[in-house]
Design goal:
By secondary structure, the protein is of the alpha+beta class. It is built from two helices and nine strands; from the N terminus they run E-E-E-E-E-H-E-E-E-E-H. Strand 4 and strand 5 form a beta hairpin. It is globular.
Length: 144
């Protein structure tokens, strides 16, 4: 299993971001994967994990599926559907994959399941591959 490149200051995957999630992403069987335990500091309501953080994790796992294939892109559209409430302390498993591409536009899908296998949330995303100066800026940020 290959660990996907990250930026140390990233809110989701940055290991040096003191307020971040510090999630680690891997690429296995054509999918980006991670696990994350819903933290109390990201409550939306008492005992309920904020949906915005779930959406953020989905965005990241889908873009990691692109990064694992050396495709450097930025999010242009994200659609999330919440199926179940996530409770603080609940362990989540996330997967993201590339579904198709047309030119520089990539369409991805992602899902979150609870540790007992229940579907918690799903997402689709559209990402635009960057070129030139923007690609260089992204490359300078990444570490392995």
């Amino acid at each position: 299993m290959l660990e996907v490149a990250r930026y140390s200051g990233c809110f989701v995957c940055g290991q040096k971001n003191d307020i971040g999630l510090k999630a680690r992403f891997f690429f296995k069987d054509g999918k980006a994967v991670t696990e994350y335990t819903a933290e109390k500091r990201f409550e939306g309501y008492h005992g309920v994990f904020h949906g915005g953080i779930t959406a953020t994790l989905l965005d990241e796992v889908m873009i990691k599926a692109l990064l694992a294939k050396d495709i450097y892109a930025l999010t242009v559209e994200l659609t999330v559907r919440f199926h179940k409430t996530v409770h603080v302390g609940q362990k989540l498993k996330l997967t993201g994959r590339v579904e198709k591409s047309k030119g520089r536009l990539y369409v991805t899908s992602g899902e979150v399941t609870s540790d007992d296998g229940e579907l918690v949330a799903t997402a689709t995303g559209k990402y635009l591959e960057v070129k030139g100066d923007m690609k260089n800026k992204l490359l300078e940020s990444l570490e392995t």
